Amino acid sequence: MTNYSIKDIAEIAGVSVATVSRVINDNGRFSEETRKKVLKVIEETGYKMNYSAKNLRMNKSFTIGILVPDISNYFFSDVVQRLEEILFAKGYSTIICNTSRSSEKELAYLRILEGKGVDGLIVISGAEAFEFASSNAEKKIPYICIDREPKKKEDTIFISSNHYQGAFESTEELIHEGCQHPVIAMHNQKSTSAKERLKGFKDALKKNSIPFDQKQHLLAVDIEQSDFEENLLAFLKKNPSTDGIFSINDLIALELMRSLKKNQIAVPHKIKLIGFDDTAFGKYTTPSLSSVKQNADLIANYAVESLLELINKKGELGRQIIVPVSLVLRESSIS
Amino acid sequence: MTNYSIKDIAEIAGVSVATVSRVINDNGRFSEETRKKVLKVIEETGYKMNYSAKNLRMNKSFTIGILVPDISNYFFSDVVQRLEEILFAKGYSTIICNTSRSSEKELAYLRILEGKGVDGLIVISGAEAFEFASSNAEKKIPYICIDREPKKKEDTIFISSNHYQGAFESTEELIHEGCQHPVIAMHNQKSTSAKERLKGFKDALKKNSIPFDQKQHLLAVDIEQSDFEENLLAFLKKNPSTDGIFSINDLIALELMRSLKKNQIAVPHKIKLIGFDDTAFGKYTTPSLSSVKQNADLIANYAVESLLELINKKGELGRQIIVPVSLVLRESSIS
């Protein structure tokens, strides 16, 4: 008897390897017709189903876990939505876990995803460097980090937008539009991407011979706090020559725009403004909001491609993939 | 020897039943201290661990599945975020599956969630009536529908916002503000909630002696299409007396506001506008957008409470819980 592989079975039945695996394990989606067809081929070829079924069951669930810190964040939910679509088209199902930026939750969900037997993991953003200590040393689960620095670079592939470029170009754009005292507005929580954006801002200042001074050039904000506007006005009082703000995200930019307007400080006439993320809403404000657009499609594509390579033991670990961003100019930053 | 139950063990150890189960199954989160404490009580009481562990493993995973049609939708992601927080605080983990409004995906994810052994299911929105045929007749998984009509009402508890009330009050508000020809703007996809909103709009017209005529009062829109603005202008040309629009969601309302502005049709002076969902962005536009606010907190609370009741075989099936909405008035609808 020829020794048929699962690949042969799939080829003869005219379905994917994933489908054969699902039929054998009775796990996931397939039509009754497909089931019959696959089982018929298995019978005809004498494929050693039981052993392979066990093997497959141990090794492949065709499920990928995603850890996301805040599913209500515009950019994160966009990336997750695309990841799911690409994975599904490739025969993988996605289970999403929302960690609410809590390390306790993250640990809990890591163990749960491990327990559910996911084949791989995609970790999105977060403040601390990511470490995944699999509780089962024999079966290490491959993982990919998006916008989140891995603790052990050699264990993973790190994908991120070029946050540095986005911040650098935004700041240069403000300067080219005539701003002599550009400011970066950011929250205190320093994620990997926030750090890169700050670096880009500082370097653009340096390139234009503006010495960075934290007190003059960094506006620390928290839009959740009621004293947001008060803080902004206090900062502007201390730094009356502020004429441009690069905001670390659109939500902060929109809140700044609203507060400035309310206090008769004209955008862009008195202060020019550029956000980050290019949320769906920036085009609806008056003035419309300039922003940095991340390429969620490309990020999701790279993430899936790299993870499937790692799962199939082909990918090169330790790599970093940096995806370019683009500046979308609207009314808020143009003279 | 007294026959101790898992509840007794939990009580003696001063932890929850869920924690005892997790320690026994070595599944999920607990500190080393908790583990020691629980195991000590088990030893002292002579609790029949093995049998119960098996039993628990068969019956309880302390995991809840959520099916959501579009995780990048503002309201859905808000509800999902809150569901996860409430469930986590009660000792349950949540796995989220995004169905991209596809019935094929929905079926696939239902089987996967079943395969992963979730204790219960929360189904959010969608166009068709929801039916869940468990593939294992012996172990029916309890489920809750949010904003999604169940096919078999007697199998579930149905929770939704009072979409009817939101639409009715918005339309009446437009009429009270002087609108004589209010219009409803909606997409073609008729979800459970969209149908209720249309009903509320029609009834408000009726109450104010305005006979509903589809051609005059219903503006069918699709913001994904490039002819959105063209359609709007064609509608206004045919119905020049249109002076108020109740929009089925904020995204459509914002797009309407932008197109109207672009064509020098003043909001609210010429046409008053009210949206639905009260997204974070409505307050940043000029004029700021009036909208209907759904109570995501209350919906999530009811959903978790009801689902845990069903899991513990206490809940009353066939019920419907309708959560009130509130009208947030801003500049776009006020004379």
UniProtKB/TrEMBL annotation, chains A, B:
Keyword hit for Zinc: no
Domain of life (superkingdom): Bacteria
Entry-linked PROSITE patterns: HTH_LACI_1, HTH_LACI_2
UniProt keyword annotation of Transcription regulation present: yes
SMART domains: HTH_LACI
Residue ranges constituting the HTH lacI-type domain according to the UniProt record: 1-58
InterPro entries, alphabetized: HTH_LacI, Lambda_DNA-bd_dom_sf, Peripla_BP/Lac1_sug-bd_dom, Peripla_BP_I
Alphabetical list of Gene3D superfamilies matching this protein: 3.40.50.2300, lambda repressor-like DNA-binding domains (1.10.260.40)
CDD domains: HTH_LacI, PBP1_Qymf-like
Keywords in alphabetical order: DNA-binding, Repressor, Transcription, Transcription regulation
Family annotation (Pfam families): LacI, Peripla_BP_1
Molecular function GO terms recorded: DNA-binding transcription factor activity; transcription cis-regulatory region binding
PANTHER family: LACI-RELATED TRANSCRIPTIONAL REPRESSOR, RIBOSE OPERON REPRESSOR
This protein's name: LacI family transcriptional regulator
